[in-house]
């Protein structure tokens, strides 16, 4: 079973949890206390208590079964709780499910290895933040001159090809967020929407009615894996990754991409399938 190691100093105070998150946590878990506001004040300096509260069964059930909870709790709190639950549940599974295209499902006996990967709190934090970043995606339109005419192109931060194009256009010192996002997109799509990943590369659909998901080149699982490993490694060696303290985690994701997507498959299949469209929208 995965063993939770003590977090590094910069992670100990749970800065990603808002005051609203802490209040929701206290009201859900500390039901025998009446001084909830006082408890909230104390929790910022009590990371070990926050850890225990995040693993509370009542919190897990409330987040999954109460519609109000999805409004009151931040996506980061939700995904943190679910990933930590997966870290406890996966070691008891005999296998994970490997999806091949839209239909075939193959059992793979790697559940204990996936649990070991989730035993690293830095990986869980990264995955929770990554999932949170896809709750709201963004696009931007860039105008550029081509000959005597100005043209425009719209870039989406949910599109691998767009992020590769922006990384190529950016100066070297500004490429980190694009490198990282490319790896994240590959991990997110294969982890949360695996049924939309063809077993092999598929050509784009070019009809005007097709949404962005189908208009772009549709990579297969192998292509997503190669892209993720390449760009996570590129992101990991940038000075920015070192400054943010995620260089080791990015390398770990590059080296263990096939394992890293399994907990996302697991929480999608077992915890949030009914809420997936509500949380992320989805490909058309």
* Strand percentage: 5-15%
Number of strands: 4
List the strand order in the largest sheet. Answer: 1-2
User: Could you report the average pLDDT, rounded to the nearest whole number?
Assistant: 85
Structural class: mainly alpha
Q: How far from one another are the termini?
A: 38 Å
Keywords:
disordered N terminus, two-stranded antiparallel ribbon, mainly alpha, 4 strands, 284 residues
Helix-strand layout with pairing:
Layout: H1 19-29, H2 36-43, H3 47-54, H4 57-65, H5 67-72, H6 75-89, E1 96-100, E2 104-108, H7 111-118, H8 121-133, E3 139-146, E4 149-156, H9 160-169, H10 176-192, H11 212-215, H12 221-236, H13 239-244, H14 247-255, H15 257-272, H16 276-280
Antiparallel strand pairs: 1-2, 3-4
Helix pairs in contact: 1-2, 6-7, 6-8, 6-15, 7-15, 9-10, 10-12, 10-15, 12-14
Description:
The chain is mostly helical. It has a domain at 139-280. It is built from 16 helices and 4 strands. It has helices spanning 19-29, 36-43, 47-54, 57-65, 67-72, 75-89, 111-118, 121-133, 160-169, 176-192, 212-215, 221-236, 239-244, 247-255, 257-272, 276-280; strands at residues 96-100, 104-108, 139-146, 149-156. A hairpin with a 2-residue loop joins strand 3 and strand 4. The longest helix is centred in the middle third of the chain and has 17 residues, at 176-192.
Summarize the structure.
The chain contains 16 helices and four strands.
């Amino acid at each position: 079973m995965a063993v939770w190691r003590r977090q590094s100093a910069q992670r100990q105070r749970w800065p990603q949890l808002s005051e609203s998150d802490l209040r929701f946590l206290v009201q859900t878990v500390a039901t025998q206390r009446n001084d909830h506001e006082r408890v909230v004040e104390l929790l910022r300096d009590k990371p070990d208590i926050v850890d225990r509260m995040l693993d509370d069964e009542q919190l897990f059930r409330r987040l999954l079964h109460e519609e109000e909870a999805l409004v009151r709790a931040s996506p980061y709190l939700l995904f943190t709780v679910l990933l930590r639950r997966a870290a406890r549940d996966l070691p008891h599974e005999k296998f994970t499910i490997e999806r091949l295209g839209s239909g075939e499902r193959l059992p793979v006996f790697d559940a204990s290895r996936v649990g070991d990967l989730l035993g690293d709190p830095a990986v869980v934090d990264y995955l929770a933040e990554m999932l949170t970043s896809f709750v709201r995606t963004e696009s931007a339109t860039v105008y550029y001159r081509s000959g005597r005419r100005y043209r425009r192109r719209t870039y989406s931060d949910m599109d691998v090809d767009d992020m590769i194009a922006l990384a190529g256009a950016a100066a070297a010192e500004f490429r980190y967020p694009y490198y990282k996002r490319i790896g994240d997109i590959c991990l997110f799509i294969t982890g949360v929407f695996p049924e939309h990943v063809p077993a092999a590369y598929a050509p784009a659909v070019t009809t005007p009615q097709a949404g962005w998901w189908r208009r772009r080149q549709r990579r297969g699982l192998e292509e997503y894996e190669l892209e993720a490993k390449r760009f996570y490694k590129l992101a990991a060696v940038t000075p920015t990754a070192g400054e943010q303290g995620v260089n080791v985690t990015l390398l770990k994701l590059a080296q263990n991409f096939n394992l890293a997507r399994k907990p996302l498959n697991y929480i999608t299949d077992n915890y949030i399938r009914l809420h997936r469209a509500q949380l992320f929208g989805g490909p058309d």
